[in-house]
Design goal:
mainly beta; globular; 1 helix; 3-stranded antiparallel beta sheet; Rubrerythrin, domain 2; about 80 residues; binds zinc ion; about 10% helix
Length: about 80
């Protein structure tokens, strides 16, 4: 049986270095703030489904969004 190819480790998103929002890999600018400072080296993910949630208000987020927790080793969402 042939060995299965390991899945690609490339993340499906790029994180905005300015606001932490995760954008699709093919994006060249951030959908949230318009920055072109998008990086693949991010870790952790917070998904805000409702702007009314406790988590959203704790993070100061007012719309449904996916954010990275750490970008280039720096914690951006806490
Ligand atoms: Zn941004």
């Amino acid at each position: 049986m042939p060995a299965r190819k390991a899945p690609s480790k490339k993340p499906p998103f790029k994180a905005c270095r300015d606001c932490g929002v995760l954008n699709p890999r093919e994006a060249t600018i951030c959908s949230n703030c318009g920055s072109s400072n998008l990086l693949e080296s991010w870790e952790g993910m917070v998904i805000i489904l409702s702007a009314d949630s406790v988590l959203a208000s704790k993070l100061g987020i007012n719309k449904p969004v996916a954010k990275a927790i750490r970008i280039s080793g720096k914690i951006v969402t806490k």
